[in-house]
Structures are given as C-alpha cells and as structure tokens.
Design goal:
163 residues, two-stranded antiparallel sheet, elongated
C-alpha cells in the first residue's frame, strides 16, 4: 500500500513567508508597471522615458525638476528606443510594505501623459506625429480587465506561486 505524508508549515512560518512574498511581489510589480509606462508613453528624445522614478511609500511624491530642452530633439521611436526594461529606475526596498509611488520628474509630465491640454505640439495625442496613443496614460491605468491592474495582479500571482 502507499502512504503519503503532508507536512504543513507551522503558522509561525507562514507569516514571514507571506511578508517576503508580498515584498518581492510589490517590488516586481512596480518594475513591471514602470516598464509598461515607458513602453506605452511618448518617446521623442528619451528624456521622458528616462525620467520615471520610484520611491517607497504610497504617500510620497516625485518632484518635477527636469525641464524640457528646446528645440526638442526628435528621434524615431522604432529605431532609437532602447528596451523599456533597461530604462526602469532603481526600486528601493520596502520592508514595511508601505507601498510605492511612481512618477515622472519632467516638468511637462502632465502634457506628456495627456492629462493637460497643450496649444501646440502633441495636442493631447492628436498630433499626426504622436509617438503614443491618445490618452495612453489613463487608458493604461484604468483599463478594465487589463493595463496596470492586470499587470500588478499577474506579477503578484507569479511571485506567490513560488512560495
């Protein structure tokens, strides 16, 4: 006859494992979201794509201090854009599980994210030379069943499967 013994972890070990999985999952998810923002967002000179930052803490803020340089150098998105993963910034450890804040440091981020109207230039995604879909940021953040929510969910699921 065949016997199988299943040994469950004691509850005292489950809590540290859960915390470790959540820390790893949050950090991985933030990296994946930033990668998506770089991939989905506009890419003219590379400055906007390179200006995403991540800080620990859900109530933190990302300062705007990178000005636009004129004239804006224009590069072909297809020929010049490096892989998004290579542009993902440093992601700090977050041992207290206080969340993360993702932001862009450019002073024109509201325009580049199609959150503010412009009088010339990209015109909130309507310009014929746009390098990102109109309303790309809001579409990514609020996509029902997809976008940012799905990316976070998929990443956390993959990390928790390892534990």
């Amino acid at each position: 006859f065949c016997e199988a013994t299943v040994m469950a972890k004691p509850i005292s070990q489950l809590i540290p494992d859960f915390k470790e999985a959540l820390q790893e999952g949050l950090k991985d998810a933030v990296g994946d979201v930033v990668e998506d923002l770089i991939e989905e967002g506009p890419y003219w000179s590379g400055l906007f794509a390179e200006s995403w930052r991540v800080v620990a803490g859900a109530k933190s803020s990302i300062p705007m201090y990178i000005p636009r340089s004129y004239p804006v150098p224009r590069k072909s998105r297809e020929n010049q854009k490096p892989p998004a993963r290579s542009l993902v910034p440093f992601i700090p450890e977050n041992s207290n599980l206080e969340g993360y804040t993702i932001g862009n440091m450019t002073e024109y981020r509201g325009y580049a994210m199609d959150l503010l109207p412009t009088t010339k230039g990209r015109q909130m995604g309507n310009a014929p030379n746009a390098t990102a879909k109109k309303d790309w940021f809001l579409l990514y953040v609020h996509a029902p069943g997809g976008g940012m929510g799905k990316r976070i969910n998929d990443t956390l699921t993959n990390v928790f499967k390892k534990y």
